[in-house]
């Protein structure tokens, strides 16, 4: 039978937020084309997770695009800079952390925009979050609104009024607790996901970086067990 579902490009990093976003796009009736990036990040675990998730959800397509932001550096994820550990939520929100990758979401969304135009898709989903976002400037509603304006001006569909391309941010006003609870209601197996910035060689999460601590807090607040492995069991008990 011919698939009449509208196509959507979903940015899939392999973490909780992007996986929940993908599940929401599927729930809303889209044929999902997942887009993952190997951009020179510290480890391959999240790419492996993205592959697992794409297979588990049987997405319509999955592209892994490769480029190397290590040539620029400027982030603990793309340069020889220590990943912050054991920070409080207040410390995480005090400034822009060194794990921020300059212009990363702008680059990712630009690729998503290009693929959407090629596919004839009018919907792009990104799992940005303005509450538990570790201080990243390109996760704010103002940024998404600005990119939406740019997309309207820069695409054939926008200029020729063929259709209105929309950037969807279904998690932007949710806490990590609410995101995880949403995923639970959708039947997501979060054991497939990876959040850690600095995992052990065997893949165990460190339990101490900002991403791990926000993840652990989200599961604890939701009253749920996080099924991934942690290097430090005492961190998982927080």
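Sequence proposed for the structure above (238 residues):
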């Amino acid at each position: 039978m011919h698939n009449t579902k509208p196509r959507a490009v979903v940015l899939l990093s392999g973490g909780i937020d992007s996986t929940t976003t993908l599940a929401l796009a599927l729930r809303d009736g889209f044929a999902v084309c997942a887009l993952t990036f190997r951009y020179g990040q510290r480890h391959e675990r999240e790419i492996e997770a993205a592959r697992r998730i794409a297979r588990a959800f049987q997405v319509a397509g999955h592209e892994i695009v490769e480029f190397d932001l290590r040539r620029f550096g400027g982030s603990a994820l793309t340069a020889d800079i220590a990943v912050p550990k054991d920070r409080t939520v207040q410390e995480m929100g005090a400034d822009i952390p060194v794990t921020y990758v300059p212009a990363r979401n702008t680059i990712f969304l630009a690729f998503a925009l290009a693929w959407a135009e090629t596919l004839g898709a009018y919907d792009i989903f990104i799992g940005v979050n303005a509450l538990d976002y570790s201080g990243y400037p390109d996760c704010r509603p103002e940024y998404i609104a600005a990119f939406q304006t740019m997309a309207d001006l820069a695409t054939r569909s926008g200029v020729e009024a063929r259709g209105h391309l929309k950037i969807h941010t279904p998690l932007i006003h949710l806490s990590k607790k609410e995101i995880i609870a949403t995923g639970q209601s959708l039947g997501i197996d979060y054991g497939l996901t990876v959040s850690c910035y600095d995992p052990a060689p065997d893949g165990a999460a460190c339990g101490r970086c900002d991403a791990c601590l926000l993840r652990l807090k989200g599961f604890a607040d939701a009253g749920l067990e996080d099924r991934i492995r942690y290097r430090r069991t005492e961190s998982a008990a927080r």
